[in-house]
Amino acid sequence: MRLVRLAIANVDSTVGAVRSNAERCVDFARQAAADGATVVVFPEQIIAGYAPEDLVQWRAYVAAQWTELERFAEATKELGCAMALGLTVASGSHVYNTAALVHRGRIRGVVPKEKLPTYNVFYEARTLTSGLPGQTGEVHGVPFGDLVFDLDFGTVALEVCEDIWSPDGPMRRRSYAGAELVLNLSASPFRLGVVDTRREMISTRAGDNQVTIVYANLVGANDGLIFDGGGYVAQNGRVVLDVRRFREGVHAVTVDLDRTLRLRTENTTWRRDQQSFEERTTAIRHVEVPEPTTGRDALVYPAPKHQSFFLPLPEDGPPTTARARFAEDLLDALALGIGDYFEKTRAFRTIGVALSGGRDSLLCLYLARRWIDQRYAHLDGPGRDAKAREILRAVFMPTRYSSEETALAAETAAQELCAPFVSVSIDDAFESELEQIQRMLQPGEALTPVARQNIQARVRSQRMWTWANSAGALFLQTSNMSEKAVGYATIGGDMEGALSVIANVPKTVVNYLLDYLLETTGMEGIRLTLIKPASAELADDQEDEKDLMPFPVLDACFLLYAGEKMEPAEVKRALHAMFPEHGPDKLDAWTDKFARLFTMSIYKWVQTPLCLHVGNLDLDRERALQLPVVQRSEWQR
């Protein structure tokens, strides 16, 4: 047996906080060492946080990371574990995203990332340089390039995030060069459904390359990107450690590297491919690390807890449904996005929501409370309630169009979530504004019904901003993606706020989450909110779906048009099959309406606050879906 203990350290870093981030890494390294770790893997760019974007153009920003890496090495020199950390490194005209190996107080080598993503939310190739196969050199006097490391227990390779997502990444040649253990340092953002894809991909890479993979993912949120953390140890295709996500911490597992060697020996295809590789490829540089790692005599063979190598492990706790996994993942991600933005910016003391009695604002307030419950999980129930009263604020601003039902729903929800609640009518301000606008109109001009509605939204937002300035509040913007896509929101009104929480969550998903929460929490405020059809309540008898179209149809239009890049004629054909109950004429009219409103509304949604990203299709011009504001639709059929 060749037993090694492999540890994953999930650390919530802040971009630019190089000293604080390095200190947290030291703490986690000591925790792992106390547990007998042989190897500790930290996430991508952990020294300075991810995503740095254009900060890497400041050489002082890059140099500070090396200084902190050296400080980390010195602070951990008494530890026997080998540790891999991510940082940015400069060499001549180039800046690289790299993984560094630290052991016994010294930096042993640095390996650059080869696959630089420039899609979706990523822009790495804009500022960073790719590593190259066979690359050799030095940075700061240590080996740099396409390296593998020979330690006393075996041969180790380092790689960074996207390198593992390509089947043609560096893992293949490094495994052929002798690496049995591959350490992947990742900052892979949360996206709906990504966890299953990620796990399957890592298992596949471990099987294809006959290696043991340790995959450590960043946890926490920076700006609009949410990182769900977690990680895996996969040995030759079999996952042996699946780390809990959305939490900081250190998790470890013991594996027998002789198993990896044995499976390589048995796999004739892998052995032939390895021989062919050696015949046609220049050898990869090996870096010897002669100092011993942590003693491994006390490690125990990883036998199954239920004492059977043939039967599946019993499940921990009750089995979960696909619905629960979907809802809990998304709720955790959004709550983390709010909480890290609130704490890391250091600009706020409270979190405020303009609670309307409707679905969107209720979900946002619930998410803020969910973060408080998770952040202060060490407190008992009354203690967390007290924290909620300290941090949360809910403001209800009714007009003549606001119903008694929504007023009751808003107040009830605020009470259940322990958010101090204030109701302040804006009717007088609405009347005053109507009067002043009438004086501004010229002959032949008249106040439109839409303008009357928008006045109310703008009065509310102005009051929320003034209150937020006074209360040191993070003012949450609560519009959803469906309404945002078609401009069913008011510039200077309900589009206002400091952080847009659900701007990338479709309305059908908002409803789905609230239905789930009603079932799991029994909150009366949710029940009261869901009784009435969704309505902005800016006019008599207003309902959102009557103004627009049924939200399932709207969301389907959005996905097919903006996600699948279908032209309107193709969208219509797809909708005919999906929603036969509405009839082709109505579906065609809704499709045309969506395409028109979507194009006309781009100028609105590019002005929304910073948005949390939770999917591959987000409405944010600087991220996933980049569209010109000024355009015409003459290309459409």
Helix content: 40-55%
Residue-averaged pLDDT, rounded? 94
Largest sheet properties: 8 strands, mixed
The CATH class label of the largest domain is Alpha Beta
Shape descriptor: elongated
The CATH architecture of the largest domain would be 4-Layer Sandwich
**What is the terminal separation in angstroms?**
67 Å
Number of helices: 22
Overall tally of domains:
3
Category by helix and strand content: alpha/beta
- The CATH H-level superfamily of the largest domain is Carbon-nitrogen hydrolase
User: In percent terms, what proportion of residues is strand?
Assistant: 15-25%
Blueprint of the fold:
Blueprint: E1 3-10, H1 18-34, E2 39-41, H2 59-75, E3 82-91, E4 94-103, E5 106-112, H3 124-127, E6 136-139, E7 142-145, E8 147-151, E9 154-160, H4 162-165, H5 171-176, E10 181-186, H6 194-208, E11 212-217, E12 219-222, E13 225-235, E14 238-245, E15 249-256, H7 257-266, H8 268-280, E16 285-288, H9 322-344, E17 350-354, H10 359-375, H11 381-391, E18 392-396, H12 404-416, E19 421-423, H13 427-440, H14 449-471, E20 473-477, H15 481-485, E21 499-500, H16 507-521, H17 524-531, H18 544-547, H19 551-563, H20 568-578, H21 584-600, H22 602-605
Parallel strand pairs: 1-2, 2-3, 8-16, 9-10, 10-11, 17-18, 17-20, 18-19, 20-21
Antiparallel strand pairs: 1-15, 3-4, 4-5, 6-7, 8-9, 11-13, 12-13, 13-14
Helix pairs in contact: 1-2, 9-10, 12-17, 13-14, 16-17, 19-20, 19-21, 20-21
